[in-house]
Design goal:
This protein is about 90% helix and about 0% strand. It is mainly α.
Amino acid sequence: KEAVGISVTQMVFSSVFGTNLNFKKNIFKIKDGFSLGVGGFLGALGSGYFVSLVNSKVLEYMFLGFVLFAFYRFFKRN
């Protein structure tokens, strides 16, 4: 739980800092940022319930699948 709390705190501060930098450069669009924020909030809200229902081994294999898929997509493009 401590590791998750530290990770979430780090993500929040880096997101706020990056958003502030992009806003100063007029790159950030409020509408896009809001929709991403709502989606991230709902995903984070539901993840605690999902993790409590699913076995840890299944979660490990799901994560491995996502990582392998990301590698496949990365190397397929280049």
